[in-house]
Amino acid sequence: MKLKSLLIILTLGGVLLAPQVFAKKLPIEDFFQKPKYTQVQLSPNGKQIGVLAPINGRLNVVVMDLDTRKSRAVTSLSNQDVTSFQWATDERILFFMDYDGNESFGIFAINIDGSKAKTLVEPARGTVGGSGRSVVRVAQVLDILRDDPDYVLVSYNKRRAAYPDVYRLNIWNGRDLKIVEHNPGDVVGWFTDWDGNVVGGVFTDELINGFKIVNPEADEWEVVHQDRFDQPSLRPAGLKADGINGYVVSNLTPEGQPRDKAGLYEFNFITKEFGDLVYEHERVDCCALVTTRQKKDMVGVSFQVGIPETVYLDEEWQSRMSGIDKALPDTVNFMSSTDEAESIGVVVAFSSQKPAEYFLYDFEKNTLEFLAQSRPWINAEEMAETKSFEFTSRDGMAMQAYLTLPPGSDGKNLPMIMHPHGGPWARDGWGYNPAIQFLANRGYAVLQVNFRGSTGFGMEHLTSRLQAMGSNHAARHHRWRTVGHTRRYCR
């Protein structure tokens, strides 16, 4: 989407004020060229690091040996970027691309020495279905099968565009693609346990949403919860090691009473019984889980009112991340990847003025080692600070927004650009944003408001926009929503 289509330029007093010059005008390429490094991931054995880096003008997979610190390009595409990748084994990497930007993603595989490249699932080239409507075919990895390393579980809407099945895919030849879980006809997203078994799925049927599980004793689907899109929801957030007990993010209390801001509860997925309230926040829905494979459980929760926050409920992880935050006091820090044994990890550090920096963390030594900057040509001191603030609307609703002022500005007599986020199920967040920084560098104040209907601020905030749209119109714009997501440190 072109930048100009995202912007609404507001006039002050009927006249657009000319941008003032507060800081050095930087080349536009500084803001929008591809990052030097992104998506830094450790191999399962912790001996290699994979990244996406520009080669031939396109993002390609590059692997660095941690012992020798020598890097080598694994892919060498020149016609399009690799969108993302993940380690399948210590020797083999899966990467993902669509065809010519149509968002129908396929799956590719290659060895870390560049050999045995294979298209496992061909990206769909056409996106128009029999009804004449646009259809996007997406194959995505659900889980790595550690007990069967030649295979992965894949969610793929090959048979029915709206409802993906679960397949078992051979990572070497791509020919062995077999359905292991047929879609019952309404599931739009699947979730698995720590051993790679399909546990259940979230479903939608016109105005009704919910989630169901496969009861292993009865070998049949059971609906755990369902609701209308504008009613209090209950959604799976994560599982514990036994695959039965886990967590839900819920706008309902254990007594069945609605609550505006979703809370995180323990939950038994077989008996459908609530456990203890784990965490809640007075301003936003809770939460995304931070989990680790070594513990096969959650160690913390993350959420965002203005600046992203993570609260670690596990003492060991709380102590570890507290030390990292003291070493990197001016950034938001999180661990994006670890090896299988959780002996080393990759720490990502960023702010609204500083693009992501990557550090290698040693669990035993409790040390940080600088690895790389995603955009080393960016000087944080030349960037504009994005500040979060809250205000009350005319009818009394609490609203959250971000304001970015040109560096060196006092905020007075500036032209302002309103920069609304997309959606419908989305919100603006805090961090380094090249488009916002470019506009601020050119002398504009930039305002980002999490307007009514933005996700994560509770049911009243979400549905106030839907009520204004009318239920029928809102239903036509409905998409699956979930306020609980899981971030795993280790695959």
Radius of gyration: 23 Å
Oligomer: single chain
Shape, please?
globular
Report the average pLDDT across residues: 89
> Main sheet, how many strands, which sense, barrel?
5 strands, mixed
Distance between the termini: 33 Å
Low confidence ranges: 1-18, 471-485, 487-491
User: Beta-strand level of the residues, as a percent range?
Assistant: 35-45%
Strand order, largest beta sheet = 1-31-32-30-29
- Total count of strands: 33
Counted by DSSP, the helix tally is: 5
Structural class: mainly beta
User: Which range best describes the helical content: under 10%, 10-25%, 25-40%, 40-55%, 55-70% or over 70%?
Assistant: under 10%
Describe this protein's structure.
- With 491 residues, the protein is mainly beta.
- It is built from five helices and 33 strands.
- The chain has a five-stranded mixed beta sheet with strand order 1-31-32-30-29, with helices on one face.
- A hairpin with a 5-residue loop joins strand 18 and strand 19.
Summarize the structure.
This protein is mostly beta strands and 491 residues long. The chain has 5 helices and 33 strands.
